[in-house]
Amino acid sequence: MTAQQEIVPVQSEVPAIAGLARTVEELISQGLDERALTAAVRTELERVLAEGFELPAEQVAPDPVRYVMYPLHVAADGSFSIASAVWDVGQGTPVHGHETWGVVGIYSGVEVETRYEKPTEPGVPLVGQGTDEWGAGQVTVCCTTDDDVHQVRCGGDQPVVGIHVYGADIGTLPRRSYDSESGAVHWFTSRWA
């Protein structure tokens, strides 16, 4: 496993994201279990996306080489983060987990998500659980700590931008990636753009 990097707090200057961060912080302080917490965050993110907001161009810009995650908010204690995740046309992630809970809402474009059963033992091929497409304004609970393996990619002819809310500083958190055919596990850290 890789060592966790130092957490660098980030505060968004986008009012809708700053408000979302305050709400997530309040929800976490209530001590809700992950299922109740992610349901509440999902409801809030749906509301924020439906009301509309504009992110600065530099927080939605694709990278020509690989997908990128821009930190919109990182709690000083690392208890949660909000990211703008951007995949250019043809880009995707390896099969991976998050090691925490997460909620994803699509800001623009189409994201294709393929889910897998979380392995219970190492070195066993992964079992697929299906594929979904998520369009602008749609929100999903992408993961809980006990159910957390998927692969995502851009599904259209324009970049996809997602607003990701995680129960940790996702840019510093060591996570697992998987070879879906062999079940081999490798640890990585996404790192912020």
Secondary-structure topology with pairs:
Elements lengths: L14 H15 L4 H18 L16 E7 L6 E7 L7 E2 L5 E7 L1 E7 L11 E8 L3 E5 L6 E5 L5 E7 L8 E4 L6 E4 L5
Antiparallel strand pairs: 1-2, 2-9, 3-10, 4-7, 4-9, 5-6, 5-8, 10-11
Helix pairs in contact: 1-2
What tags apply to this protein structure?
three-stranded antiparallel sheet, 11 strands, 193 residues, single chain, alpha+beta, five-stranded antiparallel sheet, 17% helix, globular
Summarize it.
This is Cysteine dioxygenase. Helix content is 17%, strand content 33%.
Model description:
The protein is of the alpha+beta class. Helix content is 17%, strand content 33%. It contains two helices and eleven strands. A five-stranded antiparallel sheet has the order 1-2-9-4-7. A three-stranded antiparallel sheet has the order 3-10-11, with no helix packed on it. Strands 6-5-8 form a three-stranded antiparallel sheet, with no helix packed on it. A hairpin with a 6-residue loop joins strand 10 and strand 11. Helix 1 runs antiparallel to helix 2. The longest helix has 18 residues.
